[in-house]
């Protein structure tokens, strides 16, 4: 039996067409079931639904043989889990967005950076944010949040946020502007190393199938 870890929402929705192109259909819709283990059309493959940020943990410790996680989540997990125990064989090219610094419209970020001001930055991505600002030589106090980062500058909790941006609609709706892109993000296929060695015959065709499917995204 092979176990694939996915998170509900964007990752699940964008992975589904890739799975379909590899001949795999998931038997149930995560939005309408409360089940956390979903069978597929293949008796030897099941999907487990976990929190987006938990996908690397499941794969790293073998709770799932493989999974799909955003590069944001993967790099942030590297800081705590370490990069060992997982292969990252395929950039699936789905759930594309970027990690960026955003501030309230009136805030002169470039000026604050030039002045060497100490900035208070709210983010879910404390490790990535720390690396980014350290590389720029900007002093920051990081405030760890688990969601709704856009709120922090509006309430005076922070001068800036580091968050994912795609259309910019959420930032705009909250009077924030993207002032500095940090990196491009897309979702990656990750594979437990031990599982890949012991279950190669079953896993490799799936990894190859998903690579093939992702190379042919219209
Ligand atoms: P959780 O709810 O467990 O805290 P989450 O809210 O980050 O996780 P999603 O919003 O489904 O979960 O995001 C999952 C992944 O999708 C992210 O890690 C990122 O790689 C990608 N993603 C997030 N926001 C966007 C976006 N606006 N556009 C495209 N991809 C995105
Ligand atoms: Mg969420």
From TrEMBL:
Pfam families documented for this protein: HisG
Stored PROSITE patterns: ATP_P_PHORIBOSYLTR
UniProt keywords, alphabetically: Amino-acid biosynthesis, ATP-binding, Cytoplasm, Glycosyltransferase, Histidine biosynthesis, Nucleotide-binding, Transferase
NCBIfam families (UniProt xref): hisG (TIGR00070)
Xref: CDD domains: PBP2_HisGs
Alphabetical list of Gene3D superfamilies matching this protein: Periplasmic binding protein-like II
Main location: cytoplasm
Gene Ontology, cellular component aspect: cytoplasm
Protein name per its UniProtKB record: ATP phosphoribosyltransferase
Pathway note: Amino-acid biosynthesis; L-histidine biosynthesis; L-histidine from 5-phospho-alpha-D-ribose 1-diphosphate: step 1/9
């Amino acid at each position: 039996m092979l176990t694939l870890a996915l998170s509900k929402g964007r990752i699940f929705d964008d992975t589904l067409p890739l799975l379909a192109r590899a001949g795999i259909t998931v038997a149930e819709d995560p939005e309408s079931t409360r089940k956390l283990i979903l069978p597929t059309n293949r008796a030897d493959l099941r999907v487990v639904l976990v929190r987006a940020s938990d996908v690397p943990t499941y794969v790293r410790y073998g709770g799932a043989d493989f999974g799909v996680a955003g590069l944001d989540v993967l790099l942030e997990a590297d800081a705590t889990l370490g990069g060992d125990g997982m292969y990252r064989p395929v950039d699936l090219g789905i759930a594309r967005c970027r990690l960026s610094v955003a501030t309230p419209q009136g805030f002169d970020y470039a000026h604050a950076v030039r002045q060497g001001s100490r900035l208070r930055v709210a983010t879910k991505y404390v490790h990535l944010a720390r690396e980014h600002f350290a590389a720029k030589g900007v002093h920051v106090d990081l405030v760890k949040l688990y969601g709704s980062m856009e709120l922090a500058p509006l309430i005076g909790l922070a001068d800036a946020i580091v968050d994912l941006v795609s259309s910019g609609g959420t930032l705009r709706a909250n009077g924030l502007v993207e002032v500095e892109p940090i990196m491009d993000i897309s979702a990656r296929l990750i594979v437990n190393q031990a599982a890949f060695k012991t279950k190669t015959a079953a896993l490799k065709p799936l990894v190859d199938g998903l690579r093939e499917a992702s190379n042919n995204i219209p």
